[in-house]
Fold:
Amino acid sequence: MAKTPVIKISNLSKKFMLGDIEVQALESVSLEIYSGEFICFFGPSGCGKSTLMSMIAGLQPPSTGSIMIRGEDLAKMSTNQLAEHRRTKIGMVFQAFNLIQTMNVLENIALPLTFARISKMRRMKRAENLLEIVGMGKYKDRTPNQLSGGQQQRIAIARSLVANPWIILADEPTGNLDSKSANDVMKLLISLNRKSKRTVILITHNPEYIQYADRIFWMQDGKMIKVEANSHVHTAYAGDKTSKHKKGEESQEDEVPDAAEVKEDNFSVEEANK
Amino acid sequence: MKMIDVLRIALGNLRRNKLRTTLTVAGVVVGIATIVFLVTLGFGLQKLVVSNTTNLEALKVVTITKSKDENKLLNDALIDNLKKNPEVDLATPILSYSGTVKEKEGIAPVINGVEPKNFAVYDLKTNLNKKFSSDNAGEIMINKNVVTALNETEDQIIGKDFTFDITGLDPTNTAKTISVKLKVIDIIKDDSKGKFGYTPIANLKELNHHFFNIKVKVKQKEKLQEVKKEIESQGFETSVVASQVDAINLAFGVINGVLGAFGMIALFVAAIGIFNTMTISLLERTHEIGIMKAIGGRDKDCSRIFTAEAAIIGFMGGFFGVFSGWGGGKAIELLINFLANKAGGSAPGHLFYTPPTFAIGVVLFAFFVSTFAGIWPARRASKLNPLEALRYE
Structure:
């Protein structure tokens, strides 16, 4: 395991007001996450794991403490720099998919590149490439509401990968999915981590998934209560529950290809100057 | 985000809400069409009045009435000098002396000697639209009062010869009376009480003292004041029709302003419509804005999409509004001319006039007004907290 911390969080606290009541969402959280790790933030709902994730994404500022992404302090960034941070270094996958309903699948995947001023031809090519990788090649002209939940989540994963980010933040990505689709999505996330060495942070309250993680951060009431390393992690995936479902009644569903195809294609988001 | 992508997304959003977009654009169309219809009517009437008051050619003419300096005369040398100015199209003299008609008592018409080739400069309407047959033709055109004084009718007098005794000053500045026989070839239409006639200046050459006045026509209307000043600087007094026209233009400027203000009210209502549409759109798309921000859209990318939508609505409204206003004017014009012809009256012709710069200006105006109406919703879009927007359903 490489020893460069991609994410270094020190003494992070977050308070906010819900009406007149002050809520302590996070309390003195410190952690380091290294390049290529598969991390699981595990805990019951309301434990502060989503707050932590949105702060890593720069969607809200810390009350105290700091978040360093490869040595850069998020608190010192302007709103435009934070937008760039989300666009180039972070890929987000949400429980609710959060695809834009009015755009088709390819436009959705390419949207971060649209913000990055990448030409239409280049970004569409990149989006089609990723669409193949998540096994949705034939759906490129559909809009999100013409797809099943699992299919939408695969589109969302393709979108999170489009700018070739360092870190994938997945907030309950399987929360709205049936078990077959959930396994497809998990398989995709795992292979992204294993085969293309991306740092993946999975936020979940489902204990089934902690077996896939290199390290598990247990959270409760806004505090990090335990960090656990998984020794058998590389073999855990061998169980491959997804194979059971493949012969089932949903066999017409698209095969999720092995994300080994997500090779580092040296795609970088060099933003065109204005 | 590139401008072209902002436009693509904005157009996509407008296209998806076809009915709402159409209605909002229709609001702008009504406002702009009202402005265009009213103001072009003003412009049209202005043009009609100005051209009825004076031939448009007369706007290019400056008349040298007299010299302020006794040594400077209104003579051929001055005319040659004037013709050297590259802005001057022509300079033509007139001699005016009073005359009597032989064997007719008590008639003393003013006889004007003019250059036949430049006769058009006086912009006189005649019954038969005749021209002098040559530079020294023994012909005369008289006005109706002379016809009456000669106990003739306008039809019968054409072709008859009369002998005129004309008294004036010869080149040596002494009084002299000459007798010339002139054939009446046309009747000048006018409403004046005076009696006068126009004849080729060659018939008065023996009375060739200095000219009564000189009309100078410039090539471009815009250069009139320049030429006028130059002539005045040489020590001559001048007069132009243009000053009258300026007064008419000023009056119409005020009328157009008032008409335009009525149209502005309609456009103001349309701007409120745009504001309303954009605000509703903002509420509907709050979640979408949250997504955009979460995946790396900058605040200004979000606001630009909204601004672009408002601007597109304004541009389309302006464009179709100008066409509707123009088309409405044309339809009314055709109808009025048709009715006038049917009633046997004279058709008024063009009642509406749309200068191209005005049309372009109005489109730009609509564009800016609606962009302005979109500023507030666009700012709200950029200020939305991404997390709250993401939670918004």
In short: Residues 95 and 265 of chain B are 57 Å apart (CA to CA).
